[in-house]
Specification:
By secondary structure, the chain is α/β, with parallel strands linked by helices. The protein is 27% helix and 24% strand. The chain contains 6 helices and 11 strands.
Length: 216
């Protein structure tokens, strides 16, 4: 599924930093990247990306937001930004999941199946996604390192920290640069009017902003 273009793409799911890009003609035509937190940087990155693309917010035809798992605060800020902008002028919002994007990016150069994607979570745990031998994606799960190893599968990760914990793990770049082509992969993007932060931990609830609304 390709979103209507130009599409403003927001990713605040990383442990550090924010990325915003403008997708047009199947490629990035403007990007804003910051190492600061989502609260400080999301709107500034959007402004930089739009300016680099020679566009304004009024030119944007859709939004795409990463819903994690990852930084809950970063995802919340990106989701609220997209929802606010879509309220000003109705435009569709699409979402994608970080683990699935890494898995799809790993498959592009021919990663053999089955394997597991492992991204650092909290409390020395790892957000994981198993890609089966048939190419199906299992449900995300938050696991301890020993549980990840017990899967007995090749491990794909995006940080050197994973390689230090999981011997033999394949470290790949974050999939941001590949997103314009990955978005065409069936099932990676889905329509979502009210994006929620996804966290596979058993003691996390999804978040949609409703609890923070004041009295009407």
């Amino acid at each position: 599924m390709r979103p209507p273009e130009p599409c403003l793409v927001l990713d605040g799911s990383a442990r550090v930093g924010v990325r915003v890009g403008v997708l047009r003609d199947g490629r990035w035509c403007g990007e804003g990247v910051a190492a600061e937190g989502a609260l400080e940087a999301t709107f500034g990155c959007a402004e930089v990306a739009l300016r680099a693309a020679g566009l304004t917010l009024a030119d944007i035809r859709s939004f795409a937001v990463c819903v994690g798992p990852g930084s809950i605060l970063g995802i919340r800020v990106a989701a609220l930004a997209a929802r606010a902008w879509a309220t000003l002028e109705p435009r569709p919002i699409f979402v994608w999941e970080s683990l699935a994007a890494v898995a799809q990016a790993a498959l592009v150069p021919g990663q053999s199946r089955p394997f597991v994607v492992a991204l650092e979570s909290r409390l020395k745990r790892w957000n994981t996604l198993v890609v089966t031998a048939e190419g199906a994606f299992d449900a995300p799960a938050e696991l301890k390192p020993a549980q990840v190893l017990a899967l007995g599968l090749p491990i794909v990760a995006t940080t050197e920290a994973a390689a230090m914990i999981f011997a033999g793990a394949r470290v790949v770049p974050t999939p941001w640069s590949l997103l314009p082509s990955l978005f065409a992969t069936p099932g990676l993007l889905r329509l979502e009017a009210k994006p929620e932060a996804l966290n596979p931990a058993a003691d996390y609830a999804t978040w949609d902003g409703e609890r923070h609304r004041g009295p009407v």
